[in-house]
């Protein structure tokens, strides 16, 4: 391992890219501790500790909510905007054509995604202010209209600042920027979580801690197994005779990863699974009794462990298929193979190759989606079985941390490989 680190450090470009990304992550954590002025932090933390949904959001955001930080929304609005545009691309012909334009089309969609992030951040910041004002102990005092607008604009600017930082990180090819920001937020919360666990250690709960540790190990092993697993589709290239030279005739393969979607399905699933409960929070104290009943019913439903685990599993499973359909294009692969004189043994080029690739990917994806869903809910199942409220989002956090770490390591290794080719 140390030899690998030394070789990475020896390459100037890779070293500079990593240091640049680390500097941005340090700035991210510094900004996370800059609170909006006039917030009663003690009352806010008490309110978050007594609210399970907001407590989960606080853990997922890396503690930015408990400080009422200027980046308290994190990259949540950007993720929501990405989900909306990826869904629209499947039903709006113009967006679908834009996706097929390659890099230029993707840049346009990214631009639209950033534009939509702004109004979403404004709406979410206003909703968060109204929600926190429902607490028994005041969190925000002297809320004049001017102050509300100022807070909303500040939080929205903080979100767009993170989006900008995420794009800068992605440009350095040291991992996905948005995923790394979420990764940094989760990792930063680990020391505090471990400290709380040791301070509240109860010897009678030793069996519970052992089971949680075993679930964590199984999650790590499962994520690595899925991320590294792939099926190689054999490809042969026809021989071409040009004068006295023979070209082609070689054999290769197409690597199909078991989990082509990476960590994106988990991030999308967490965003959606928390959304109904967040909306219900606003109507718990509504004037209309029927609205209060619906809000309380929604909260009770999502606090029901069997329902929550089932919904979480289904969302992870569905988003794995959905995101794979977005990034995997069997038609393009089949066309490229045919142009290069390649073919899959036993499969005719063209439409039959496209159908074969699509069918094979669906079968592989079934295994990846099932494993990813089971790993995501494994710690939740252990928690439900033991009746413990500890590590409420531990499985999701661990899943994201391991998957992002693997993706980042692969991108760094790819940069090193490119430098080796340049030297040759």
Please specify the SSE layout and strand pairing.
Elements: H1 2-10, H2 12-31, H3 41-49, H4 52-60, H5 76-88, H6 93-100, H7 103-132, H8 145-171, H9 177-199, H10 206-228, E1 230-237, E2 240-242, E3 245-247, E4 251-257, H11 264-281, H12 289-303, H13 305-327, H14 330-339, E5 342-343, H15 351-386, H16 394-423
Antiparallel strand pairs: 1-4, 1-5, 2-3
Helix pairs in contact: 2-8, 5-7, 6-7, 7-8, 8-9, 9-16, 10-15, 10-16, 11-12, 11-13, 13-15, 14-15, 15-16
Report what the structure shows.
It is a single chain. The protein is mostly helical. It folds into two domains: 187 residues, Orthogonal Bundle (Preprotein translocase SecY subunit); 223 residues, Preprotein translocase SecY subunit. Helix content is 71%, strand content 5%. It has 16 helices and five strands. A three-stranded antiparallel sheet has the order 4-1-5, with helices on both faces. It has a two-stranded antiparallel sheet with strand order 2-3. Helix 10 runs antiparallel to helix 15 and helix 11 runs antiparallel to helix 12. The longest helix is centred in the C-terminal third of the chain and has 36 residues. It is globular, with a radius of gyration of 24 Å.
